[in-house]
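Repro:
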Amino acid sequence: MNPIELKTEQILKRICARGLLPAVSVYDPSAAVEVARALQAGGLDVMEITFRRPGGEKSIAAIRAAVPEMLVGAGTLLSTEQIELAMSVGAQFGVTPGFNPAVVRAALERGLPIFPGIASPGELERALALGVRAVKVFPVEQLGGAAYLTALGGPYRHTGIKLIPMGGVNADSLVSYLASPMVGAAGGSWMASEKAITDKNWRGITELSAEAVKLAISAKTT
């Protein structure tokens, strides 16, 4: 394995071991640190900070400094400039909403593990051709939910690529998603919603995270 392949495998292994990837929209560094600590208290040490508004990069930098045990990535990456920005503040992996080959190549060339968004078999094959080891399936609920992921397993399970469904996943549907053979982890914002962050409901985030961890464990043991 080359260095980027090894790094990607290590990060993916950790994400898949948890079975969860919280997608967090937080743009105040102090709040970001509290969210990271709340997730950690609930049993999660992986998270994605979205780049939907300015400030996401400051949140990642703050978490890397204050909560070094947290594996933190940058999400909603739409350009090569955002790839560079994410790396400059210490993002350990990247996630995109759609499949942009230029963004994927930029991440891989710069040594940033990347999990691009896909919505079709064609995009999945293009990701495989670039050497991607996991993809975000988005928006999974609108695409057909867990049944869609199971259907992808027929022609693609043997490739070893992992799926990370996002877009409508919640506590009620989590177990069904994790039951799909190709799914490595499920992502979503319900564990640390923007409302919970605005209300500074850190205990609520911890409780929802702990509940999600229990559900993920039960899905993996059934």
